[in-house]
Amino acid sequence: QVQLVESGGGLVQAGESLRLSCAFSGRTFSAYGMGWFRQVPGKEREFVAAISQSGVTTNYADSVKGRFTISRDNAKSTLFLQMNSLKPEDTAVYYCAADRTYFSARAFAMVDHYDYWGQGTQVTVSS
Q: What is the pLDDT of residues 33-71, one digit of tens each?
């Protein structure tokens, strides 16, 4: 069974940076496409970024394009999200997710596509 554990969240000021990590275990990490999503209370979970099994292909939500970078280290079974120039509207619980199907940008941007989810890590950006 796949297990995902996020870390790296916290409280920062607008304009600062954070790096989230997602530790993957239970299966072969390099066989899974990965994604980051976020959610605020009362709203639906939304797509942030996704990355293919090899790490060659990435996809971003328009709201984070140019500020966030998704990456992975297959040797260490870890997914990352580098978040720069943070804004108060980036405040949310951030979740990583995994799925073993063939990567497509459209599919991996959908919440319902993923089989496995982490428990989330809180990111709070103050103005």
A: 999 999 999 999 999 999 999 999 999 999 999 999 999
**pLDDT, tens digit, 9 for 90 and up, residues 72-119:** 999 999 999 999 999 999 999 999 999 999 999 999 999 999 999 999
* Residue 70 to residue 79: CA distance in whole angstroms: 8
CA distance 102 to 33: 8
Give CA–CA dist 112/29, Å, rounded. Answer: 20
What DSSP letter does each residue of 53-89 carry, written as one string? SSS--EEE-TTTTTTEEEEEETTTTEEEEEE-S--GG
C-alpha–C-alpha distance, residues 127 and 17, integer Å: 14
Tokens at 114, concatenated: 């993923």
Closest CA to 48 of 34, 59, 63, 37: 37
